[in-house]
Design a protein that fits this description.
alpha/beta, two-stranded antiparallel sheet
Length: about 280
């Protein structure tokens, strides 16, 4: 069963989804730039079947977590929220799984407090994406703060981009989760201002600076397909190889999926559960 929980952090309220039996090998999962906790449905279900307790966060300003005031976002602030969440839930040690920008936040958390993090899974995020992938990343943000006539119209718009696959198995529920009813239709709850603050933060910081801090067992799950057909990859092969050379504790897996599809790909699920359950 999945439980909605609200955590009162020093930075404000943070919403999360909690899976599995309390006190059983905890895992904290961190979504990407404009994503929310439902992106981890497939991974959380797989980990729960293996006996883990899984807590998946709505980062501040995403999903059902309110945004902070201007200037209170960025990887470090999100990482501090992750570590405070672990303290509130009394996780003396835990595993971290991050997707996309969530992987940067996971690495930042490791740099701040590596001793409490047993193992680290980085899903398609370790450094600067290939230039050809960036327009698609930014285009996904444009859905925010727009009113759509219905949930069906919103889903049709997202699905028309062709990137959020598998749609019915995962991403439809993810995008429905972020909607709220407003006059004349529905609108994503996710804060465009909070997301763009993180975009600016990311343009001024290099996630590769965290690599020397990653002395715990680390798995990079890389989406081998480009984000869009003919476009760029979020983790290109050259960046993957640079990461492996720089982080002796890491191993990698290339999965035949794009940046979205990797989150429910059977090979990725097997690798993540196997890595965190061994």
């Amino acid at each position: 069963m999945t439980q909605d929980i609200d955590l009162e952090l020093s930075s404000g309220r943070l919403h999360a989804l909690r899976w599995g039996r309390r006190g059983s090998s905890p895992v904290i999962c961190i979504p990407g730039l404009s994503s929310n906790a439902r992106a981890f449905d497939a991974i959380a279900a797989a980990l729960t079947r293996e006996g883990h307790e899984v807590v998946v966060l709505d980062l501040r300003g995403r999903g059902r977590s309110p945004a902070g005031s201007p200037g209170t976002h960025g990887w470090r602030r999100h990482a501090e929220n992750v570590l405070e969440t672990a303290r509130l839930l009394e996780f003396a040690s835990f595993d971290l799984v991050g997707h996309s920008m969530g992987a940067f936040i996971a690495m930042q958390a490791a740099a701040l407090r590596g001793d409490g993090i047993r193992r680290l899974v980085l899903i398609d995020g370790v450094g600067v994406p290939e230039a050809a992938a960036i327009p698609s990343i930014l285009a996904a943000v444009q859905r925010l703060e727009t009113v759509y006539p219905s949930r069906e119209a919103y889903c049709a718009m997202v699905q028309s981009h062709g990137t959020a696959v598998p749609w019915d198995e995962l991403w439809k529920e993810h995008f429905l989760y972020e909607l709220e009813d407003v006059p004349f239709g529905v609108r994503p709850r996710t804060s465009k201002a909070a997301v763009f603050e993180d975009v600016v933060y990311g343009s001024q910081h290099d996630a590769r600076t965290f690599w020397p801090s990653l002395d715990m067992p680390t798995l990079l799950v890389r989406a081998a397909r480009p984000l869009t057909p003919g476009g760029g990859s979020v983790v290109g092969a050259a960046l993957r190889d640079e990461f492996i050379r720089a982080v002796p504790s890491a191993k990698t897996l290339d999965v035949d999926a794009n940046h979205y599809g990797v989150m429910a790909h059977p090979e990725a699920l097997r690798a993540i559960t196997g890595f965190l359950t061994c």
